[in-house]
Amino acid sequence: MDRPSPSAPLRLSDEVATALAAGTPVVALESTIIAHGLPRPRNLAVAVELEDLVRAGGAVPATIAVLDGVPHIGLDKDALERIATDGSLRKLGFRELAPAVATGASGATTVSGTAFLAARAGIRVFATGGLGGVHRDWTTSQDESADLGLLARTRITVVCAGVKSILDVPATLERLETLGVAVLGYRTAEFPGFYLTGSGLPLDWTLDDPAQVAEVMRAQDELGGAESALVVANPVPAAEQLDPELHDRVLGEALAAARAAGVTGQAITPFLLAHLTEHTGGASLEANLAAVRGNVRLAAGIAAARAAEQAGRRG
Ligand code: PSU
Ligand code: MN
């Protein structure tokens, strides 16, 4: 046969394998935010904290990365430490997975890489900070994150604080519509602004509790058709958002600095996030972390609601 069915081995941690077999809640977590999105040494503490938050929410964490060519679904302490400290790790989106597996490379997975591997492993719920999307200079650079296209063809629920505000947010929402990816506001009718509670852009759907989200997931499955994702947009609490004036000013400077330095491609998102952290005196980092924490907690709740709904259908 020219093209065998998917068989690349995924290495599941024992607890993830056990939970999936039992139908108990699992939440996928990405590793790019740890390896490339957060400063060291804070990133390792955050990686551990996010896993603890998943557990506190009654779910099993599955942090995803590719190590020595093997996709790992659930990392032990040593592997988490490697993700946080090894400066040579690649940034792996979906398209980078096959080259990484074939060459034995190691890398942290982005939203697109993580969502793909999570879905392959049978994990339905995924938490991150902010999705990638359409960059502000798209008309000349054509830079649109692979996150969007992958979510259009992957059945996963991703909990995020919107898309990173370094992006062209209205254009990204339009692309999600074009691609057929549903976006739900969690207790908000406004699309969140990543570091900011709101983006000023309206959403068509607002849900108020995890069980309702699980109902939408079930409806997606019952309708069938394209295996698209569900984006649950969960704003950072107003008390923990970045000061909007500081945000706008420093972001303007960051975009100018990226242009001046000629930063492009995969490097642009980490560059902008790091610039913001440095020039807000760490305030953007705190807002980013507050957003991620909230997303991880909500994802655990959604995974639990999903597990209960599925158990109810079986039983
Ligand atoms: N969310 C965060 N910090 C991050 C990211 C998300 O709070 O660093 C990462 C995700 O891995 C996302 C990636 O997929 O940024 C987008 O990168 P790009 O624009 O190169 O596709
Ligand atoms: Mn890009």
TrEMBL record:
Domain of life: Bacteria
Comment on bound cofactor: Binds 1 Mn(2+) ion per subunit.
Cofactor or coenzyme needed: Mn(2+)
Binding site for Mn(2+): 143
Keywords of the record: Glycosidase, Hydrolase, Lyase, Manganese, Metal-binding
Main enzyme class: lyase
A Pfam family this chain is assigned to: Indigoidine_A
Matches recorded under InterPro entries: Indigdn_synthA-like (IPR022830), PsuG (IPR007342)
Function as written in the Swiss-Prot or TrEMBL entry: Catalyzes the reversible cleavage of pseudouridine 5'-phosphate (PsiMP) to ribose 5-phosphate and uracil. Functions biologically in the cleavage direction, as part of a pseudouridine degradation pathway.
Family statement drawn from the similarity comment of this UniProt entry: Belongs to the pseudouridine-5'-phosphate glycosidase family.
Name of this chain's protein: Pseudouridine-5'-phosphate glycosidase
Species annotation: Kitasatospora arboriphila
